[in-house]
Description:
The complex is a heterodimer of chains A (286) and B (260). Chain A has 2 domains: 3-101 and 159-278, Glutaconate Coenzyme A-transferase (3-Layer(aba) Sandwich); 104-154, no CATH class. With 286 residues, chain A is an alpha/beta fold. Mean pLDDT of chain A is 96; it is low at 282-286. In chain A, helix 3 links the parallel strand 3 and strand 4 (66-71). Helix content of chain A is 29%, strand content 24%. In chain A, helix 1 packs across helix 2, helix 3 (55-62) packs across helix 4 (83-91) and helix 8 packs across helix 9 (255-267). Chain B is α/β, with parallel strands linked by helices and 260 residues long. Helix content of chain B is 28%, strand content 20%. Chain B has 8 helices and 14 strands. Chain B has a 10-stranded mixed sheet, sandwiched between helices. In chain B, strands 6-7 form a two-stranded antiparallel ribbon. In chain B, helix 1 (6-16) packs across helix 2 and helix 2 (30-40) crosses helix 8 (236-255). Chain B is globular, with a radius of gyration of 18 Å. At the A-B interface, helix 4, helix 5 and helix 8 of A face helix 3, helix 4, strand 9, helix 5 and helix 8 of B.
Amino acid sequence: MAKIVSLAEAVGDNVRDGDTVAMEGFTHLIPYAAGHEVIRQGRKDLFLVRMTPDILYDQLIGVGAARGMKFSWGGNPGVGSLHRFRDAVENQWPQPLEIEEHSHAAMANAYEAGAANLPFATLRGYIGADLPKVNPNIKSVTCPFTGEVLAAVPAIRPDVTIIHAQRADRKGNVLIEGIVGVQKEAVLAARRSIVTVEEIVDELNPPSPNSLVLPSWAITAVAHVPGGAFPSYAHGYYPRSNAFYIGWDEIARDRDSFTAWIKENVLNAKPEDFAKHAGNKPAKAA
Amino acid sequence: MSDFTPTEMMTIAAARALSNDDVCFVGIGAPSAACNVARLTHAPDITLIYESGTVGTKPDVLPLSIGDGELCDTALFTVSVPEMFRYWLQGGRITTGFLGGAQIDKFANLNTTVVGPYDHPKVRLPGGGGAPEIASNCGRIFITMALSKRGFVEKLPFITSMGHGEGGNHRERLGMKTKGPTRVITDLCILEPDPETKELTVVSVHPGVTREQIVDNCGWAIKFAEQVIETPAPTELELATLRDINARTKKAHQGDKEAA
Lengths: 286, 260
């Protein structure tokens, strides 16, 4: 059963130096508050996994929390480069970053294989592409029935997966709505998991029998962090701050302005500071 | 006819490539603008799909990211990312993929990964995202990007997604049954692969553009088809639609000033 705890306790209990950590959320529901807590607690040597490392992983890389990263698209969506990621890869600042690069299809399949307790995923992928030449973890497998040669990648099995969701009930059952990305697969593939939520309610009341619910017994810890996905968004709660994503380009371009931003907005901040972004609770989420 | 910019001509020419029956996997940026102009003009029933899992989406403003809430709010339905890539893309349900890129070569292979050596890149670009499998699994591919010597290069430092590979029947030799890139729409002209060699060849020149401009802005010795037509200028409706959605988009993206 999930323990409902503070964010500091959830991260303190479940994220360890050297861990393989997946923080997922495909543009939507990115667990920013939890990522900031990982930075505040000074975690080191993390191997970060995420399909679309955007600003959150730029921050973790820039503070030197990561030894490596597995990913499929590392940019600031619609804006441009992740400058801290680029500085790490191009100039090894603040430390070298080992990268394992895949395509979206391969990453999605690899999470699914992890959730399904399989050792690898197979897909009709990477045909004619150069990534298999530079990533030894992209191999091939021959179909035993048709002889077709398919791409194979290892399953993703994080030590801990961290996601953000709309709400949980008091037992720790979690409801996710909107663009659901790979969050379900990432949680089920991991040994431990942390879910931050916009609100904790008496009754979960899933809107449909087919709603995406993660049961309490499949989650390690749940923490109540309203606004915890800002500047990404929580469908039904608050919109994506595209202005923040645009503004990040200038903050992250320069090492000093980045470091000053982290000090003011992460190191000297608290999870409760995210609440101001939470907006008004929609009527349906009562 | 009112004045229009080369970028407006590019987006509108790209929009015209799409039809009402297309099921289109939409890349972010220029492809997204083109696909939505098509939907708002001649192709109202086109199915637009973004890799975040939104199917049949009808955004009122263009998304900044492939997962903006606008896409989910206006979609017929939204699926998980594994389902998107496995069932819908790999399953062969998508007629058309619309991609952009940082660099392209004469066989319409694309690079969005690195400039310089992979292990010690001069410029680390974002990477492939969905492109490697979009390029192989969609029925056909359209590409839109501005013509420039930096972008249209003789040899790519890295092939992120395969177009026609080394040309000729390279796709078939690798077992692919899809057509690959069938049209590249730039701000100066439209290119299509030669039926035999698969080398990108100019088939249509935008109004007011000279052949010299095209030659001067391409990094390889670009060829012209035997019959080259002039791209019809944007209509009033096309231009008004594009400018309206761009204006709505700008307002929406800069509207949330609570940031940072």
